[in-house]
Amino acid sequence: xxQNRSTLDxxxxxxxxxxxxxxxxxxARNGLLAAMAQQLAGDADGAPVLAIDWDLASPSLHGYxxxxxxxxxxxxxxxxxxxxxxxxxxLRRRRIARDDGGxxxxxxxxxxxxxxxxxxxxxxxxxxxxxxxxMRAGRFDEDYAERAERLDWVALFDxxxxxxxxxxxxxxxxxxxxxxxxxAGRSSSVSACTALVPDRLIGLFTPAAGSIDGLEGxxxxxxxxxxxxxxEQRPLLVYPVACSADGARxxxxxxxxxxxxxxxxxxxxxxxxxxxxxxxxxxxxxxESWFDEVQLPVCEALAIAGPGHAALAHPASCLxxxxxEGCFPWQSLAEVRLRASLxxxxxxxxxxxxxRLAACLARLAELCREEGRVNEARELLRESxxxxxxxxxxxxxxxxxxxxxxxxxxxxxGRLDDARQRFEQQxxxxxSVLGADHPxxxxxxxxxxxxxxxxxxxxxxxxxxxxxxxxCERLWGDAHPATLDSLEDLAVTLGRxxxxxxxxxxxERVFEGRRRVQGAEHEDTLRCGQRLGQLLGEMGxxxxxxxxxxxxxxxxxxxxxxxxxxxxxxxxxxxxxxAAQGDxxxxxSLRASPAPLREAxxxxxxxxEHHAIDSLQQQCAQLKALIEQDSRMEARxxxxxxxxxxxxxxxxxxxxxxxxxxxxxxxxxxxxxDAALALNKDLVSSLEGALVRARRDKLPxx
Length: 702
Fold this sequence. Notes:
Layout (H helix, E strand, L loop, with lengths): L1 H6 L8 E7 L4 H15 L7 E5 L18 H4 L4 H20 L6 H11 L7 E2 L6 E4 L8 H7 L2 H7 L3 H12 L2 E5 L6 H9 L3 E6 L5 H18 L8 E12 L6 H4 E2 L4 E2 L1 H13 L7 H6 L1 E3 H6 L9 H11 L9 H14 L4 H20 L3 H19 L4 H16 L3 H18 L5 H16 L3 H19 L4 H16 L3 H18 L5 H16 L3 H18 L7 H15 L2 H8 L15 H22 L3 H11 L10 H17 L3 H25 L5
Parallel strand pairs: 1-5, 1-6, 2-4, 2-5, 6-7, 7-10
Antiparallel strand pairs: 3-4, 8-9
Helix pairs in contact: 2-15, 5-8, 9-10, 10-12, 16-17, 17-18, 18-19, 19-20, 20-21, 21-22, 21-23, 22-23, 23-24, 24-25, 25-26, 25-27, 26-27, 27-28, 29-30, 29-31, 30-31, 31-32
């Protein structure tokens, strides 16, 4: 044991304490912890890793590190039970002195107790080549069970609430990672190592009844405790891990993951997204990429209940992709890898490293923009632009591309003045460097026209659009992608000005051109098809809108996935068309709502509408948060999706007024007065129609 004292030096920066919890406990938790510990201890920096067996009722973690439970020498080694017992004994001794007039503060008391009871004799090295250490559950003699049962965690906490937190802090000074195997179920011991000790919590769950409920309870109690106790207000990063018999192969139909609306069963992904959204206050959160990659096969965990960790090396490696960088589980794998590359490039030197850094920043910014995180994308692009401007100059193609990307982000985020200035500058620069008829010049002018349309300068915007379209047709013909791009930009501007007839003709022309030139399943074709379908719905051509959006949705689901970010708005747009047609069975099937549905009462509201009203209330809260966070792109998308729902007569008047005011606020923040006016016209029209029907049917209106 003495070697531990000399080799465990203080780290340059503190490590992380992570608790692994499974409601059922058992080999899946231990196998994953052991595999993670082996890989983390093998990192190039050579920093030590500590595993702690906190499952005192079923101690078995030592077996995963080659510690035989029947070895006489091993049985003599002390562990957590013995260390906690020594702490409690020291506290009782000091409590007498303190009652006699001691008066130490909680943190000072904890530090003095930990100085008196050193943790090092309770830790042993378990790997000859890697800096891997273990704190066993305890000394496995004939009195172990009695000592473990007699250990009073509540008394330990009451005597010194800061003790376990300060203990974890001390361990983090010497170990890059401390991995704690929590006990199962619900107990004071579980609360101690899930709420008091960790910086991170890995929660394992299975299809067994109560498993995910147990995880939800542990996470909720831990976060609530930290939020309500001033001394414990520190972050807790949660990683949920699905464990089934054979990993993802056991859920080929994804019924467990996605749910079964026919039986009112919510999928685990939806439940955990809801849990994390509430815990972290994040409006938009998706665990799609996380659960695509991180699945733990329990059968392999059971098969390696010993020192062999190769079977769980792959799931552990997948989890560590997020874990090692401290990334959130709702960040996509592409983003996690980009951020890892970014961190590596930042420490490099030289001109080539600067170019790689600028390119990496631009790629990450594009990913953030696609996910609607425009503020983050803007900051990344500004850093990339500064690097490229200094190294390459303003005339370089990469610098120009970054300017255009930054303008697009400003436009998406509602920063219209900034976008206008940037596109004006780029249009002038490209014209002087490349010529007035160059594709970059025409693209910059088309973007500028889109900004002008958003700012209410409709005539100038349309004139500029038409100039760009005319030039593209003259240079490349009607079917060239650049011509189709300019025509689609013009159609979007016409739609914003409610010239729906002209917009429809142009969208149809562009859609057919893209299908013929680029293919029916090309990204540009799908985007145009979605826009055309939504416009047809606004114009009342519900049948054609439905057929078109159904076709787009089928392709999206086949290539991008049913729950991918590009697929979701198509599904929502189609759901609105189906609802407008009165096909509520199709709406149920499409949205796959896990909430149980009841039959409509005679003369009452359809059950799907009740669900939609509940959803509208949730959306209202999300929209308010987005407005407060200045997330304009996300707010605009959400506001557009709520326009139809707010017109339903079953929506209570106060809720309708509140939602309508917030939608109007979003439109006005973007300078889109036409959209705000159209919203108010739609609300008035819906109420006038209701009055007519009420007089005809003699039904109450509100």
